[in-house]
Amino acid sequence: MGLHWGLNPLRYLVPEDILSHIESTQVDPHVPTSDNDRLPMINGQTGDMIIEIKSSKFYRLRRDKFRRMLMGGIDIRWGKKITNVSYSDDKLTVTAKFEDGTSDTGSILVATDGPHSKVRTLLVGEEAAKVTPIDFASTMCFTQHTREHALYLRAKPHNPLYQVAPHPEGCCAWLSLHDGDDKEHPENWTFFHYISFPEPREEINTRSNREHIAHQKAMARKFVDPWRSVFEWMPDDMDVWYSKLRNWDPSLPEHAWDNRAGRVTLAGDAAHPMTFQRGQGLNHALQDSFTVCKAIEEFWGSRDEGEAALIQKRTDALASYEAEMKARAGEEVRLSGENSLAMHDWSLLSKSPSLTKGMILSRTCIRCAALSFRAKKAVAY
């Protein structure tokens, strides 16, 4: 996952003694992150540099290591699958019910249960909750190679950690390191790569696993190295992950939900699954966490003021969080969708959000956040 501007909200949420380990959660903990890091965008046909996309500090994180870092000191209950949510008549509590027959009751439920969120379905209904496919798909591949080949894939002029390559014929390739922990044994490194391609959203893909690999290899032969080689060296029978590109815009009127007096809301991929080629998902999830945390801080101290005060402050605080999140993330869902289209259409590439905006948070989103915090301060005081 790519962490860049999301580092700022993360600093508020995580104690420094934990966050100090962020470098160790990178795909290669031996390569320090620099303020000068850039994401190279290469012409997949010629190998020419199109642009080095600017961002704030760009950490390329392993999900499993990053998650372990954040788990320290937290009581996590594993193996829970939510089935329903109920609300007390007095508007004070919410109860999550699980498949194993257990339940948990609290003042607020923040659902972060992924792009196919069960809670989102409960809030807006099955049809409205469905993610929307766009006209592209991808096949994700994780591969290991011989020592010689692994060293070649990380040698200059190839970027040692990540690079993206749109192709004039309408597909887009990515290559990055996924696991470089074993510094002395390149044959143990794992690489992550895919080629995304046009596919009508209504088309049902019936390729077998081997056929997905063959399809990726055929497209890769149109690319320059390192993509041509990393796919050619890939086994024909390994497991890969095929998926259509999908999103869900929380700002659409038909996606509005009732937060039940501030007792239930959505965040992260549950609130705004987006296409991945602008690298924004993790960063917006962290901004959600920051903003909802600030909202909780605003009403939590009002418990001693009586039930009516608690309910009103919680309702106002969560409404403010949702207004900020929907405006910010809704814009990003649309920008990421535009970016995915442009990365597969050479005539649109120069206008893609990746080229015109980089990976920073848009000015509109920054204004949304600032207005939201001012509104919440007015509510609190």
UniProtKB/TrEMBL annotation:
<keyword id="KW-0274">FAD</keyword>
<dbReference type="InterPro" id="IPR002938">
    <property type="entry name" value="FAD-bd"/>
</dbReference>
<keyword id="KW-0503">Monooxygenase</keyword>
<dbReference type="GO" id="GO:0004497">
    <property type="term" value="F:monooxygenase activity"/>
</dbReference>
<dbReference type="GO" id="GO:0071949">
    <property type="term" value="F:FAD binding"/>
</dbReference>
<feature type="domain" description="FAD-binding">
    <location>
        <begin position="73"/>
        <end position="300"/>
    </location>
</feature>
<dbReference type="Pfam" id="PF01494">
    <property type="entry name" value="FAD_binding_3"/>
</dbReference>
<dbReference type="InterPro" id="IPR036188">
    <property type="entry name" value="FAD/NAD-bd_sf"/>
</dbReference>
<protein>
    <submittedName>
        <fullName>FAD/NAD(P)-binding domain-containing protein</fullName>
    </submittedName>
</protein>
<keyword id="KW-0285">Flavoprotein</keyword>
<keyword id="KW-0560">Oxidoreductase</keyword>
